[in-house]
């Protein structure tokens, strides 16, 4: 993250999404080709040269298996309660065909019904977008919202192929109108399998053998069966079925696909890895403070887990200090 200079010479297009209703107010002489976008208006542009860092090697240092990288900036205007997103560029996009014609859809979760969309850039895997987008978001709920970028490719038959996604929980960011955060993130593949009966949860595991520390990063859940109540994840460390310690994520309100990105660490001796296990429970919290478990998953050695849960644990122990990320199916805990 770096701080960029102030935006100047505004002449490009800015797109707006309201919490209650989308609308369009075209400016005289402006273009209005916004694809399936429901609301937008034209107000200005940004000089992309302001965002260049002469010592930045992020455009050349791509790890093995990289499917693309996205640059954008985020700013929040407290007085108007507007979240400003400037989509800058993408690099190293891996399209399924020889030529890549990418565009980006931007969501402000938990609202997954509405989105803002960039223009399509033809025949390039390294597009410059330089487009502004505005979401209306209350300052009281901003820390519970999450930006989601979906990068698509349009083939010759005008069909859309998802190349990857970027998820940015706003609770992790300090957003003001005085400074603009310029951020880049590597695209990650979206899990396209349908959700299981009770939903799924994605998290990363890591074990530091030098520090004797077991780390869990709760990333997100999807397909949860809930109404408008808040939902959180409880992570419990067990040893020989004996409870050791429990930690909880912040609650996310009213989303069947909540995003958390919260990290927890447990002090665990290496010799205890053969008898320890982790239980991750997705819990719905109702207004009367009663909690209801939507589902859970247990990862650990052969004593406690099988299948993907056992594989995840074994991969973590075989790759010290490396984050190992996987999706898991939630199940109802036995009574």
Automatic annotation (TrEMBL):
One of the GO BP terms on file: calcium-ion regulated exocytosis
Keywords associated with the record: Repeat
MF-aspect GO terms: calcium ion binding; calcium-dependent phospholipid binding; clathrin binding; phosphatidylserine binding; SNARE binding
Keyword Repeat in annotation: yes
InterPro entries according to UniProt: C2_dom, C2_domain_sf, Synaptotagmin-15/17_C2A
Residues covered by the C2 domain: 66-185, 197-314
Cellular-component GO terms for this entry: exocytic vesicle; plasma membrane
Stored CDD domains: C2A_Synaptotagmin-15-17, C2B_Synaptotagmin-15
Keyword tRNA-binding attached: no
UniProt similarity note: Belongs to the synaptotagmin family.
Name recorded for this polypeptide: Synaptotagmin-15-like
Taxonomic lineage from the root: Eukaryota, Metazoa, Chordata, Craniata, Vertebrata
Originating gene: LOC109323998
């Amino acid at each position: 993250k770096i701080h960029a200079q102030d935006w100047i010479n505004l002449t490009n297009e800015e797109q707006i999404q309201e919490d209650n209703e989308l609308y369009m107010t075209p400016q005289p002489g402006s273009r209005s080709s916004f694809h399936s976008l429901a609301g937008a208006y034209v107000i200005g542009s940004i000089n992309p040269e302001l965002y260049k860092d002469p010592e930045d090697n992020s455009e050349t240092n791509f790890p093995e298996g990289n499917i693309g990288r996205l640059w954008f900036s985020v700013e929040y205007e407290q007085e108007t309660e507007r979240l400003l997103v400037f989509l800058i560029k993408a690099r190293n996009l891996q399209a399924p065909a020889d030529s890549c014609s990418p565009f980006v859809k931007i969501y402000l979760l938990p609202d997954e019904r509405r989105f803002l969309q960039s223009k399509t850039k033809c025949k390039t895997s390294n597009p410059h977008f330089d487009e502004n987008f505005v979401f209306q978001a209350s300052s009281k709920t901003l820390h519970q919202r999450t930006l989601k970028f979906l990068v698509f490719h349009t083939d010759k038959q005008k069909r859309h192929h998802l190349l990857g996604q970027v998820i940015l929980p706003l609770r992790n960011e300090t957003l003001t109108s005085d400074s603009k955060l310029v951020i880049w993130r590597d695209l990650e593949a979206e899990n396209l399998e349908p959700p299981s009966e009770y939903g799924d949860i994605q998290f990363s595991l890591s074990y530091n053998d030098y520090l004797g520390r077991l780390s869990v990063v709760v990333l997100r859940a999807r397909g949860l069966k809930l109404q408008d109540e808040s939902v959180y994840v409880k992570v419990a460390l067990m040893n020989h079925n004996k409870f050791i310690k429990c930690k909880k994520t912040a609650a996310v309100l009213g989303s069947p696909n909540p995003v958390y990105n919260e990290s927890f660490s447990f002090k665990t001796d290496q010799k205890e890895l053969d008898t320890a296990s982790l239980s991750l429970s997705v819990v719905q919290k109702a207004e009367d403070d009663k909690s209801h478990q939507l589902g859970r998953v247990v990862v650990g050695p052969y004593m406690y887990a099988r299948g993907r849960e056992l594989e995840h644990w074994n991969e973590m122990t075989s790759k010290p200090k490396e984050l190992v990320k996987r999706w898991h199916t939630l199940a109802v805990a036995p009574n």
